[in-house]
Amino acid sequence: MNKSFTIHDLPADERPRERLVKLGEQALSAQELLQLILGRGAAGESVTVTAQKFMMTNYFFAEELVEKEFGIEFPKKDCGKEIMAVYVDIYGNEFREIFKVK
Questions:
Q1: Which of 15, 43, 81, 91 is the residue whose CA sits 20 to 30 A from 50?
Q2: Phi-psi region of 49 (alpha: psi -120 to 50; beta: other; left: phi over 0)
Q3: CA distances (Å), origin 43, targets 40, 46, 49, 50
Q4: 69: DSSP letter
Q5: Residues facing 94 on adjacent strands
Q6: How far apart are CA 67 and CA 12, in angstroms?
């Protein structure tokens, strides 16, 4: 059975939590910050793998959505069974919506 790479496989001074304490959040990558927020991986995988899957890969601004008549296409191979859209306004208010992949 293949062992998934985990945070504990890293030298102590390269682990996200230790780097956060020593260097501050500015020194961490977006993926490292997400690993800290998630805390643990999905069933059967490390937080490193889960965070990589969870990273936002596509984003659009309101003007782009209007131009596209609110239609956005993704390659189906890049999607799971559902897609979550998170709408954020300039004040930081969020609204989340989940769509089933057809």
A1: 91
A2: alpha
A3: 9, 8, 11, 9
A4: T
A5: 88
A6: 48
Q: Detail the DSSP E strand segments found in the chain.
A: 82-88, 94-100
CB atoms under 10 Å from CB of 51, counted, come to: 21
The token pair that represents 67 in the structure block: 């131009």
- From first to last of the 102 residues of the chain, give the pLDDT tens digit: 455 667 788 888 888 888 889 998 888 888 888 888 888 777 888 888 888 777 766 677 777 777 766 666 666 776 778 877 777 777 777 888 888 887
On whether the pTM is more than 0.85, the answer is no
- What whole-number distance in Å separates Cα of residue 40 and Cα of residue 64? 35
